[in-house]
């Protein structure tokens, strides 16, 4: 392949080598001049004043003044680790992606995070966790930017600023720091009832994981896979931890938030450094790519719905092992930039309206967070595949591109027309039919069922898990100042299950409302029985 013109060595460009640690024999300025003293500023006599001409003083302080970059607008608090992904070959049947071929080993970097807290917030708060994986494949980087909960709060990315504004600290008091702002959060999820499914997962033990090592991960959206012959299937990605799924108890989580706010970060790094490498199986649920994009009555483009594993088993396609901690948190964990659109040949997006908005949002926010358009040149973000793009110039450009003709085809720099055939190419259009339809701001009717899967989740819980869920709703709703908001959320719980609703209402000392969504609408659709699936028994 073409040489990577964006990662030149010092020798090629004349750029001096920058010491990676503090071990050099001499301290130098940023320009390499040796220094004798870094503890005293240059003064007119030992009692001053300090002289403006002290370049070393100004350089040292100026650089320090600019050490911080904006924290991520969401998922600001996180920890990351390096590792390897080894494919077992099972996915070869459905995708041409080279890194999923049997025995292929791909270096990876994973970042785990909470969603709402700021960079310095506590690890063990009740929240969704991010589980973002960068696969440095030799066909281009694949980012699987997922969460530890398989559904999302909203169905359309246009509501993302709203749900996050509702969850982040209140604008007046900046309270609470680390978990959902209570009045606005419950106001949002009780008004935008598609959020009820994600919310019950948060109120369950899934909202307070024991460790990053004991979390499942989910791609959430449905993806499309394309094989060598161009045949397609729809898939959902699942990470299953080898250690099993474990959670904290709420009292433990609260105590840890005070005693060791770095609990999850410490646990991850201690385990890896002790050689207890955490592992996950990556699996896919596979669905036929039909024009309806549904499976067993579930709309596969609706990110608030799961497909129960009883109906579409998760098939393992490879194993992830995290085996190396970062050398430098800022360089690696803080500067890593994931993007849902980083896809290798053989994996593609679908029309899920949440996913479509994410395709815009990540690069947009990273342009600010990482200071301009060249952040793929930051070491942690550099692809391991050869890069030969025609992206030029811009802030923080580190490549010294050669040649005069950054366009294709060209007749000056050997820029030949693209070779025929698309086997190894990403972003090859899958010829799915796009319906001829009026331009509307609307969602399909299938997105209107906001309760059946919440009931499914509640029904699948053991008695002790149900007890924890009731306790969590009661505790969190108990923090709301506005009674009308508590009452509206109780109304939502009445639509989920009478026992759940009654127990939370009793805990809050409020009356038990009647359901407003008739039970007939919250039964499994007939299509579920057609494929022989069963709803888990209570
Ligand atoms: C960051 C997951 C929906 C915007 C993240 C991160 C994860 C994640 C794991 C942290 C990445 C990291 O560690 O650096 C998800 C999942 C979603 C979802 C699973 C739904 C299924 C959305 C939507 C939007 C969005 C709908 C916007 C329309 C962002 C932004 C960041 C982010 C702006 C910060 C990225 C950065 O600063 O590098 N998301 N997200 N997310 N997400 Fe999402």
From TrEMBL:
Active site annotation, chain numbering: 75, 147
A Gene Ontology biological process term: hydrogen peroxide catabolic process
Domain Catalase core stretches: 28-416
Protein's UniProt keywords contain Chaperone: no
One GO CC term, this protein: cytosol
Cross-link (3'-histidyl-3-tyrosine (His-Tyr)): 339-362
Keywords assigned: Heme, Hydrogen peroxide, Iron, Metal-binding, Oxidoreductase, Peroxidase
Catalytic reactions of this protein: 2 H2O2 = O2 + 2 H2O
Binding site for heme: 72, 111, 160, 358, 362, 369
Entry cofactors: heme
GO molecular function, one term: catalase activity
Enzyme Commission (EC) number: 1.11.1.6
Task performed by this protein: Decomposes hydrogen peroxide into water and oxygen; serves to protect cells from the toxic effects of hydrogen peroxide.
Similarity comment text for this entry: Belongs to the catalase family. HPII subfamily.
Protein name per the record: Catalase
Entire-sequence positions represented here: 57 to 594 of 753
């Amino acid at each position: 392949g073409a040489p990577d013109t964006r990662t030149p060595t010092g020798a090629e460009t004349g750029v001096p080598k920058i010491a990676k640690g503090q071990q050099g024999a001499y301290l130098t300025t940023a320009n390499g001049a040796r220094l004798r003293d870094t503890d005293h500023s240059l003064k007119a006599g030992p009692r001053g004043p300090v002289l403006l001409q002290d370049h070393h003083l100004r350089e040292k302080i100026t650089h320090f003044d600019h050490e911080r970059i904006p924290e991520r607008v969401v998922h600001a608090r996180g920890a990351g680790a390096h590792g390897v992904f080894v494919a077992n070959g099972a996915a070869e049947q459905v995708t041409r992606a080279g890194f999923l071929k049997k025995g292929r080993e791909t270096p990876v970097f994973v970042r785990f995070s909470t969603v709402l807290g700021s960079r310095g917030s506590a690890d063990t708060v009740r929240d969704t966790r991010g589980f973002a994986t960068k696969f440095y494949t030799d066909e281009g980087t694949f980012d699987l930017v997922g969460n530890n909960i398989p559904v999302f709060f909203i169905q359309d990315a246009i509501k993302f600023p709203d749900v996050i504004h509702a969850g982040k600290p209140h604008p007046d008091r900046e309270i609470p720091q680390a978990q959902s702002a209570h009045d606005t959060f419950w106001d949002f999820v009780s008004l935008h009832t598609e959020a009820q499914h994600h919310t019950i997962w948060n109120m369950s033990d899934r909202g307070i994981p024991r460790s990053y090592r004991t979390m499942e991960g989910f791609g959430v959206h449905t993806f499309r896979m394309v094989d060598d012959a161009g045949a397609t299937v729809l898939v959902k990605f699942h990470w299953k931890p080898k250690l099993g799924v474990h959670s904290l108890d709420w009292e433990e989580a609260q105590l840890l938030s005070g005693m060791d706010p770095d609990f999850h970060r410490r646990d991850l790094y201690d385990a890896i450094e002790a050689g207890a490498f955490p592992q996950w199986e990556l699996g896919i649920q596979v669905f036929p790519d039909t024009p309806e994009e549904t499976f067993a009555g579930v709309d596969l483009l609706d990110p608030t719905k799961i497909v129960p594993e009883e109906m579409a088993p998760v098939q393992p396609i490879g194993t992830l092992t995290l085996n190396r901690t970062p050398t430098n948190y800022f360089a690696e964990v803080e500067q890593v930039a994931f993007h849902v659109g980083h896809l290798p040949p053989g994996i593609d997006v679908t029309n899920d309206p949440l996913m479509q908005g994410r395709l815009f949002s990540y690069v947009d926010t990273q342009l600010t967070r990482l200071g301009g358009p060249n952040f793929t040149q930051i070491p942690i973000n550099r692809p391991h595949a050869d890069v030969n793009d025609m992206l030029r110039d811009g802030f923080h450009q580190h490549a010294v591109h050669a040649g005069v003709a950054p366009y294709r085809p060209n007749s000056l720099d050997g820029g030949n027309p693209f070779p025929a055939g698309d086997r190894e190419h990403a972003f090859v259009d899958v010829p799915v039919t796009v319906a001829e339809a009026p331009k509307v701001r609307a969602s399909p009717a299938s997105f209107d069922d906001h309760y059946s899967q919440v009931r499914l989740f509640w029904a699948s819980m053991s008695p002790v898990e149900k007890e924890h869920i009731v306790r969590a709703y009661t505790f969190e709703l108990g923090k709301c100042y506005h009674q009308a908001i508590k009452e509206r959320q109780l109304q939502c719980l009445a639509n989920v299950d009478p026992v759940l609703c009654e127990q939370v209402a009793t805990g809050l000392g409020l009356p038990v409302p009647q359901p407003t969504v008739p039970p007939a609408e919250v039964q499994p659709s007939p299509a579920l029985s057609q494929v022989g699936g069963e709803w888990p028994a209570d």
